[in-house]
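Q: My labmate handed me this sequence with no annotations at all. I'd like to see what the chain might look like in three dimensions before we decide whether it's worth expressing. Could you predict it?
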Amino acid sequence: MDKAEAQKRIAKLREVINRHRYLYHVLDHQEISDAALDSLKHELKTLEDEFPGLITADSPTQRVGGEPLKEFKKIRHRTPMLSLEDVFSAEEAEGWISRNAKIEPEAKSAGLFAELKFDGLALSLIYRNGILESAATRGDGRTGEDVTQNAKTIEAIPLKLEVRGELADKFGKKSKNMIRRGLIEVRGEVIISKKNFEKINSEQRKAGKQVYANPRNLAAGSVRQLDPAVTKERRLDFHAYGLLADLGQKKHSEEHEILNALGFKTDSKAGEIKNLKELLSFHEKISQKRQDLNFEADGIVVSIDENWLFGRLGVVGKAPRGAIAFKFAAKEATTIIEDILVQVGRTGAITPVAKLKPVLIAGVTVSRATLHNADEIKRLDVRIGDTVIVGRAGDVIPDIKKVIKELRPRSSKEFRMPKNCPVCGHELKKDGVILRCVNLKCQARHRESLYHFASRQAFDIDGLGSGIIDALLDNGLIRDAADLFELKEGDIKSLERFGEKSAENLVKAIQARKRVDLSRFLLGLGILHVGEETAADLSENFGGIEKIRKAGLEELEAVPNIGEVVAKSVYGWFRDERNKEFLEKLLRRVEIKNPLKKAGGRLKGKTFVLTGSLYSMSRDEAKSRVRVLGGRASESVSRDTDFVVAGDEPGSKYEKAKKLGVKVIDEKEFLKML
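A: Here is what I predict for the chain of 674 residues:
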């Protein structure tokens, strides 16, 4: 092949490769396999090696090139990269609109544009005559670091601008002129997908290296690598959100259209907003679905859509008046520990609880946080009076993440676990890391066992909360859980805050649970060490309460997933005289539904953990279906877990799965497996 033929072939190869880059990274559409595309790139590289004079800066082969840098040079931004004012509530968002209306009355009814606020690293890209000339970080807003070589490794950043797609006609003529002889600045965010983040951390763990804290830090650190080859390995992504060039756009929403036509990926969820009501609805919708996004986003960016009005509003400090960052509710916050209390659980476990200065976390006011046990207090070195970071994920009980020791006052007090039960005064016994009240007659244990009996995990009695149980006990209406099923409307309606209708509803709710699954029945008994999964194992292996109550120790130990400790606990419970009496009383009042026989072994040997809300079924239904198909539905994530099913607003189990490298699937994938 002579030089002229090579030049034609190279031009055609570049055109095809760039087209498939656009299809894959912008339109999320793949027409040829990765292997086929790699083959085309290899052919191009071979030809360029043979004819080095034909290599140009915009060639796909130039995404990685050159030796590692010794340091980053500085680049002065042509226009400052401003930050945004943060707002956290509907009132603050409304206040932003009102403030703008005082400056420019048109702002009161102006159209808005809302887009995701990706949590990554902001970049400014300069294209001269359509070719990527430089890429710079935000830096201090006026001067950033030159990361051009690293930006070239990101496939979602085009090295050469071309007008593509349906919008080519709308903005084509002016765009083409600017591309041929002009300067275009594009701004956007470098991000890394959650999936890719998990994969990299999994590789880090296997190599015995430190894992990365979050996707944002990894994305930012990857862009600021002195060796472009390392950046390329991270498989970063880029979403454009700003255009600093006159290509005929009158609105910010049109900038997104033009950027898309020029070969950039933009936020697919972005859209025009007419008023505050639509804005709040958009924010709520994205906030609820944020866990389903493939990228981290910490809020939405809301802008005045009309560019002339945006410009007229000007800048205050380092932020434009015409845009705000409407943040999602934080999952962590700082507050002060006012006291440390202890509570007694249904199994006698003593749990220290931090009483907090009330603080808003994830949209909910929190005033209590668990400290788990004495070992956790020691590990955190937490004291009364400390300023702490409190975390809350999904429906998980808030807990203390960290003590900010620099803010510790001199008056802070160390906490010591009690030696005696705070309710009955009985001496506490050590059980592993847990202190336990072993007095079976302890009133605190009794109340907690009743709370547990009525809870969603056990008998699931709608409307029977701890406050009502307290009232029933305090007024002598019940002595134990079995008495609940004897209650009549007249017994209840005389209680404070109860009327005829509410009393009727509660009795109906209790009676609706007179027929209960064997596993729920077992869970409701409150046997030490018997949780949801153990109750299911016992239920499936024995098939009936009579077989379980008569089972010997060896029979119990032979049940899969049940060890010696659990077997002894179950065996002992059914042989205790007080428990025998209660069981007989309860069996006279309720009917037990024995478990379904397993339909097959499609999920045999697979362990699932569910977190968050599912749309197609309740979590209990999902667990039941897993078990019927031979699988195991566990409550805790470990390295032995095969799948974590992440629904809406997943809790800490989702985070733990990521740390352990356990595969996380969404509801759609879970339903396919079922």
